[in-house]
Amino acid sequence: QVQLVESGGGLVQPGGSLRLSCVASGSIFRINDMGWGRQAPGKKRELVAVISSGGNANYLDSVKGRFTISRDNRKNTVYLQMNILIPEDTALYYCYSEVTNTARATTSYWGQGTQVTVSS
Q1: pLDDT tens digit string along 5-38?
Q2: Residue ranges of the alpha helices (H) in the chain?
Q3: 65 conformational bin, left if phi > 0, alpha if psi -120 to 50, beta if neither
Q4: Model confidence over 55-89: pLDDT tens digits?
Q5: Are 101 and 1 in contact, with CB atoms under 8 Å apart?
Q6: Which are the contacts of 101, defined by CB distance < 8 A and separation ≥ 6?
Q7: CA distance linking residue 77 with residue 69, whole number of Å
Q8: How far is CA 8 from CA 26, 73, 82, 105, in A?
C-alpha cells in the first residue's frame, strides 16, 4: 500500500501565498512523476502542475509564472508554492504520484485533498 498525505491549504487573501506539501509513504521502490490537480465546486477537475523525477515541470497555463512545483526525492515529497493567488485558484487540491512499489508494479496514487480558499 502507498499513501499520499497533503498539507498546507487554508484561507488567504488575493495576492497572498501558500505552500502545499505532499508526502508519499508505504511500499515504495521509486517514484516517477508527481503532481497536483484541483477541483472547484461545479467545475471540472484540472491538472495544475507535474514534475518528473529529474525535475522537469509543466504547468496549467493559468498558473504559469505564479506557481512553482518542486520535489525532494530523498523525502518522497512534492511541493507546490503558490504566489499571487487569485479567487479563481480556490479549489480542493489533490496530490498524485506514479509509484513503482517494492513488487515492481507501477500505479498512480492520489491523496485526500487539501482546501485552498482565496477571498478578501
Answers
A1: 999 999 999 999 999 999 999 999 999 999 999 9
A2: none
A3: left
A4: 999 999 999 999 999 999 999 999 999 999 999 99
A5: no
A6: 2, 26, 27, 28, 29, 107
A7: 11
A8: 21, 19, 11, 30
